[in-house]
Amino acid sequence: MNLLLTSVFGPYGVDDSFGRKENKMELFHNQITREQDIFSYRFNHHSFGLQLLAQNVETPCTVLDFPTLERFVEEIKRGYDYVGISFIVPNLKKAQEMARQVRRWAPASKIILGGHGVNIPGIESLIEHDFICRGEGVRFLRQLLGEDPAAPIRHPLSHSSFNRRIMGVPLPRTAGILIPGVGCANRCRFCATAHFFGAYTPYLATGAEVFNLCREYEEKMGITDFGVMDENFLKIPARARELTELMEAHGKSYTFGIFSSAETLKQLGDLDLLVRMGVQFLWIGVESKKEIYEKNRGVDFHALVADLRHRGVSVLASAILFLEHHDQQSILEDVDFAVSLKTDYLQFMQLGPIPGTALYEDYSRRNLLLKEVPWEEQHGQDMIWFRHPHFSREESREFLQRAFARDYEANGASFIRSMRTALWGYAHCRRHRNPLVRRRAASFYHLLEQMRHFLLAAGLFSQNPVTTRLVKEIKREFREIFSAVNPLSLGVLAFACKEKLRTRLRGDARQPDLLCLNFNPA
């Protein structure tokens, strides 16, 4: 018996019969730094869930990530007992085509559908299939394959991102991915992941389990920096504290990027615990100036963001546009509020009724959904797909673009903001009375060593006064830390010039490389 697990086929982020150009296969360039031109982060991320599933079955399994349709057909012709297709709502047509190809070229294969797309109403009649996986997939797949569903979870070792470029400079793959658990107890009404997985399911329940996995990454791949795929990692504070204590006891200085809610940070108390733990990036849901979500009640976000950044924690805040209370005045107030927080990164997402969420059920019941909008246009980075009393679909596109542009103009390039945060973190750690905090200065010094090479090009390619001012200020501070001449700056400048020319001549779209992995070979 054998199994194929695959993501949907490319090309991605192009206008064709399967998708739309606005839905890029890049997290940052799609929905965070999208209006920052050459300063936008160009990263791709693997389908980590497929690797986790493959790692946790005994059956021989192949993972195909970012294939072309031709490469997918070539693979299914090899003959698999099961073909699992993972897809999100906007990729319905791609999943339909892949299932059609399986029935044509591998009729003996059983088709498994998974991912958020399976919550589309009537999915049973929309795509050829034999099984549908809803929710947590490890137990489902083990049961389907006749394996022990309660067997211990085995975590795969995988880089957190690839095809990484900033200002055209190719960056090495230096970070790994950790998946401590899936689901979220907060269950915000709009959140697809929280509703898909339900209550929190831990894969790494203790700090010791997280620490041991970090050590395995370090020993086998030389990785000490990690992206943590967990909706609210600090929600189990004992796990975070145990992880911190183990790192300190063993002299390890691992660093992390995490997700957290504001109310969890308030309960944490001393934010220096984040510094000791090595948190250098934190994604937090601000959503709106108006306290419409319990997780944000009574939170002073201006103070919280400032406290985090001055400790060296780069903050990515997310805000939602076209909420129920938004009109053409109040939406601008929410945009200005989010911009005024002065975070390193700012995500604006359109309110999106995603199938499977409480929001979708509510809007469906109230007949607010625009059913004529095709699924491939329901991705949150172009036009809304529901009736809003104060905005047309075309206006929603315009307001979204203006929000990103407003942040860029008011706060400068996110990459330069993150340099400012790293400088603050270095100063905070160097001066701190606690030696456990002071020891973290070394990781900031290493980060700043890498960042300084970009300052020459950043100054020359600056597109607004705020970025220009930030670069000048930061250059002065860098000279106090690094006195040596920096010849690599000219190399960065050459890459930046090449990238600017490339996008002008060939356009903005980039395609991720194919990944094919084999697990449990027979």
Sequence-ordered SSE layout with sheet pairings:
Elements (H helix, E strand, L loop, with lengths): L2 E4 L20 H5 L10 E3 L3 H8 L5 E5 L3 H8 L5 E5 L5 H14 L4 E5 L8 H4 L4 E2 L4 H8 L17 E5 L2 E2 L4 E4 L2 E2 L9 H6 L3 E2 L4 H15 L3 E4 L8 H14 L4 E6 L1 H7 L3 H6 L1 E9 L13 H9 L4 E8 L8 H11 L4 E6 L7 H8 L27 H19 L2 H18 L3 H4 L2 H11 L3 H7 L3 H17 L6 H19 L8 E5 L3
Parallel strand pairs: 1-3, 1-4, 4-5, 5-6, 9-12, 12-13, 13-14, 14-15, 15-16
Antiparallel strand pairs: 2-7, 3-17, 7-8, 10-11
Walkthrough of the structure:
- The protein is of the alpha/beta class.
- It has 3 domains: 3-154, Rossmann fold (3-Layer(aba) Sandwich), CATH 3.40.50; 174-351, Aldolase class I (TIM Barrel), CATH 3.20.20.70; 420-506, no CATH class.
- Helix content is 42%, strand content 15%.
- The protein contains 21 helices and 17 strands.
- The protein has helices spanning 27-31, 48-55, 69-76, 92-105, 123-126, 137-144, 192-197, 207-221, 237-250, 262-268, 272-277, 301-309, 330-340, 358-365, 393-411, 414-431, 435-438, 441-451, 455-461, 465-481, 488-506, and strands at 3-6, 42-44, 61-65, 82-86, 110-114, 131-132, 162-166, 169-170, 175-178, 181-182, 201-202, 225-228, 255-260, 279-287, 314-321, 345-350, 515-519.
- The strands form 4 sheets. A 6-stranded mixed β-sheet has the order 6-5-4-1-3-17, sandwiched between helices.
- Helix 3 (69-76) runs parallel beside helix 4 (92-105) and helix 16 runs parallel beside helix 20 (465-481).
- The longest helix has 19 residues, at 393-411.
- The chain starts with a strand and ends with a strand.
